[in-house]
Amino acid sequence: MAFQFESPYSAQTERRMKNVFQSLSEKERRRYAAIETVKLGRGGLRYMAELLGCSEHAIRHGIRELDSLPHDELGDRQRAPGGGRKPKIEQQPEIEDQLFEIVDVHIAGSPDEPDIVWTHLSPQAIAETLHQNGASISAPTVADWLAENDIRRRKIEKSIAGGQSPDRNAQFEQIARLREEFEDSGDPIFSIDTKAKEQLGTMYRAGRAYCNHPQKAFDHDYPSWSDGVLIPHGIYDMARNHGHLNLGLSHDTSEFACASFWWYWRRIGRFHYPDASRILWLCDGGGSNSSRHWIFKQDLSQLADRIGLPIHVAHYPPYCSKYNPIERRFFSHVGRTCRGLLLRSAKFAAELMRKTTTTTGLSTTAHILRGAFELKRKATQEFMDRMPIHFSDLLPRLNYTAVPG
């Protein structure tokens, strides 16, 4: 008489066993099925496979794993390396040939860099093209194949310098000498620059911020729709790790830059450096503190007269403004603080920027510097004749001192 296995469990118990089985991970499922099979003895293997909906092979695998416990070779893995279903591209090599053909037709490259190629097709578009050719494959599988062939989404890398200054190394060495000299004497060193202009009002700003509802902004960035322009002039005290922003509402001119420092020195700087005998400015070579414009030197001379201290200026070489310390030590953190928030008014912007801090001790102050600053001013003939600027023997166009009269 043929052997016939009878279920030892009630219908309710079998249902509970199925529910437990479904709640487990892959590794736990086969081991649970294995221990139940071992308990049942003869006929239990087929019964558990049918009850739980798994293969007899998986249960046998689980029994072998039970014999090796408590030592678990898999650890946190669900399967041994190489286990599981093989990718469809490996099962059907002809699909990979079709993938190469599709990508090759829709690929472009750089005439200067033959190793760089790109395609305008998305994984979904490639999968649909394959489907039209009679091959069924999913977009995620195509994405994995692209990644394996080192074709993935990348953003453009800003790494090519706009030019090369012949005085680059010499000026960097000069700046290093000046910094060491001023640090040894205890005189202040300030990194100076103007941050990118900001549109005030309901104007879109890039980035994300934590909030319970998205902020609403205009669907176009027309300047005429803004409530004005904010010009953040930054002064970074390198010794104190303190940044100050004067927020202008007019124009980014040399007069504005010097007025900004005058406000800062009168209200903040002089109290921290009561014994200063001179001041060092580190700045790039363009904008409101251009190394080429005489009007900046005239305004700088007037600033030195008001402060009563010599102001040494060292410009970073052309194409090297990113090395100005204020860029990475201060402006980058201010940008992080303001990211994704609408600057509805200058007052709100100042309050927001004052919150800029870092774990390394950066502190920030901000002030709205009102007043109109004219464009297209030129140095006076009287200043040119008197020339109270002392130029350095080394790279004089990048290094000079405004001496108070």
TrEMBL record:
Superkingdom, taxonomy of origin:
Bacteria
Cross-referenced Pfam families: DDE_Tnp_ISAZ013
Composition bias of kind Basic and acidic residues appears in 69-79
Q: State the residue spans of region: Disordered.
A: 69-91
Q: Which NCBIfam families match?
A: transpos_ISAzo13
Return the protein name: Rhodopirellula transposase
